[in-house]
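Note to self: keep these together.
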Amino acid sequence: MLSSGSAIYYDGVAAARRAVTVELEKIMLVIRGPDGDILERWPYEQVEELAAPAGTLRLGRLASPVTSRLDIRDEKLGAVVKELVAAVETRSSADRRARVKVVLWSIAAVGSFLTLAVLGVPAIADRLAPIVPTAVERQLGQAVDAQVRAMLDPKKPGTPLECGDAATEKAGRAALAKLVGRLESASALPMALRVVVVRQREANAFALPGGTIYLFEGLIQKAENADELAGILAHEIGHVAHRDGMRSVLQSAGLSFLFGMVLGDFVGGGAVIIAAQSVLNSAYSREVEAAADLYAVDLMKRTGRDGRAFAAILARIAGAIEPGMLLIADHPETKDRVRSINEHAAAASGAVLVSAPEWAALKQICAGR
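Structure:
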């Protein structure tokens, strides 16, 4: 199947037209400028066909704050895009019916939650999170992701939020993909992982519903070796596996979000903004963090690496003083976590996750500013 092609892009702000390349990924189309920089990412469920002259497929993005559009004159590329959008619409219709059944069953299981709104939502979220279809969780994750990006992006001219796209950063992105691939293979999750590195100075990382993990540049700089970074990622993969992000979003967005799921439309409005804020300021309970820690240790064992590296970076970051370090401020007592991790970890028995040159390149993944 055709995976890329040329098109004309209008950003909705200036009248100028731009020649771009359209890349068709599994869940979205990516619009790249002539220099290779990513201009926009459009999930297929947000793509709509607009009126256009004959021979042109004109696309817009639903609920976009600007009227950006894409004109595709390549007949083959246009046909593939239509197929992908139609396939998503078909799946969305099936998912919507599945969501109704799941939510109604869950509502019946937890009883009359309307009369116990304040006290009942956490219980509803605990029961609902494990049974939400993964396709629904991915759709939610995409909606939250858009809000998270808007909240994190400093919008400095010439400085993209995401690292790894510049020519000098591609070796680092390849090294990260190799490291994540080892962890993902060992985890055997029911959904694909996507790790995004962003230009943020804090030593932080968090997972969204649906398998996207945000990794801050500051955390990579604090890591002294690949195993330390792998330990942090393994911990976040634990949150993905346990669906902690889904549970947190359900709890924070409350009844408006639950009603949105019943109605089949929860990707817009205030509930998603609240959900994104809850992810950025997540404060999991001691039990949830302990479970993610043990998952990380077990995952490191399965990759043949020593989970004590995770304990080492956790202890070192805890001793640092850095404003906005959410990894420290919101997590349970670090000493107890470090002790538990070290008690359950085993010595490394397998090959290194990345080579020394690859690790050096990964450390420079945000260097091409």
